[in-house]
Fold this protein.
Amino acid sequence: MIRIENIHKRFAKNEVLTGVDLNIPKGGIYAILGPNGSGKTTLIKCVLGLVIPDKGIIRIMEQPVKNQWKYREEINYLPQIANFPGNIRVRELIGMIKDLRQKPADETSLIRLFGLESFLDKKLANLSGGTKQKVNLVLTFMFDSPIVVLDEPTSGLDPTAMIALKGLIRKEREAGKTFLITTHIMQFVEEVADQVVYLLEGRIYYTGTLSGLLEKTGQNDLEHAIAAITSENQHA
């Protein structure tokens, strides 16, 4: 589904990715973890075609993505920060994104899931951060695409919305979707992820199951396992 081969990326003197190899088969939830500056967001943006690698190849559904754009139609993307004009109403924004994507959309059930019915005619500038995130989740999930990329999807969500999001992700996974998720919330990873990919200083230090990572580090939970592997490699 997604094959990343020997990806390198440098910004000025800062080498962000240094030979990343990753194979993500169809179906499943992959959590991309690592401290700030580890290269997570750059890797995600390379997959999306928003950043061009200096070296290496990325294939999606067996096709190289370099100089291509059509493959992006098969990806739903939730950016960490989605900036839309504050004077647009929620209903107008949803309609605008549907017009841009030109794909069948099912926003009604998602609006109900996240309790947004009473916010549809409100302007974005008047919404709380958590409500804006719910709107962004509707925009992301309302299209039926095989790949879903979520960058910090839990930001600002209340417990009820978190439960709804986790249920939605599991439902979409059962339908065969492939997820790439970056997050700093380890409990969220423990509850939804099938595989963990751990990045540190532009390299992948672990790819595998959560249980495998716990066994490798001798820890009882993901938070301590991540702390252990980070400390181990920073002192190596």
In short: The radius of gyration is 18 Å. Helices lie at 40-48, 90-101, 108-113, 129-141, 159-174, 186-192, 210-217, 222-234. The longest helix spans residues 159-174. The longest strand covers residues 14-24.
